[in-house]
Design goal:
Elements: E1 5-9, E2 13-19, E3 28-35, E4 45-47, E5 51-58, E6 61-65, E7 68-72, E8 77-80, E9 86-89, E10 96-103, H1 109-119, H2 127-136, E11 139-141
Antiparallel strand pairs: 1-2, 2-3, 3-10, 4-11, 5-8, 5-10, 6-7, 6-9
Length: 144
């Protein structure tokens, strides 16, 4: 049984690493995300090297995938193919929990730890550093 590592990104976003890239021979990453109401979430982005599947566990998550808005409820899932511009947010007053499966295992706990070092310093994070971290793991931020 794997030990779950919890990585906090700011005040409202928590990543629970369930299976890291090192646990799966870099085949996939499996992690739970807790999104508090009005949490700061990642900028709209796409993945240039991997697909992602998101499964709702608790609450209602609002996803935008290639301009289409999807409300993801518990028990529902959606597939985010490589190259699809997407973002998510919690528009409700309750916390949201989701399970994310990213294949192949290009990014994992190390990615989230690096983000946490920049985000959790207090004050506005360095956007240039965040973008560089994202790009180094195959996540490409999209402005607008």
């Amino acid at each position: 049984m794997q030990h779950t590592e919890i990585i906090r990104l700011g005040a409202g976003l928590e990543i629970h690493i369930l299976l890291d890239t090192l646990d799966t021979n870099r085949q996939f990453t499996l992690f739970k995300v807790i999104v508090e109401p009005a949490a700061k979430v990642p900028a709209a982005h796409y993945h240039d090297q991997f697909d992602e599947t998101i499964y709702g566990l608790k609450g209602l998550l609002t996803l935008t995938i290639d301009g289409k808005t999807i409300e993801l409820a518990p028990g529902e899932c959606c597939f985010v193919p490589k190259g699809a511009v997407h973002r998510f947010e919690n528009k409700t007053a309750e916390s949201v929990e989701l399970l994310a499966y990213a294949q192949s295992g290009v990014f994992g706990a190390t990615y989230f730890r690096e983000l946490a070092e920049v985000i959790n310093v207090g004050g506005p994070p360095d956007a240039g550093k965040l973008k560089a971290i994202m790009l180094s793991y195959g996540l490409v931020p999209v402005s607008g």
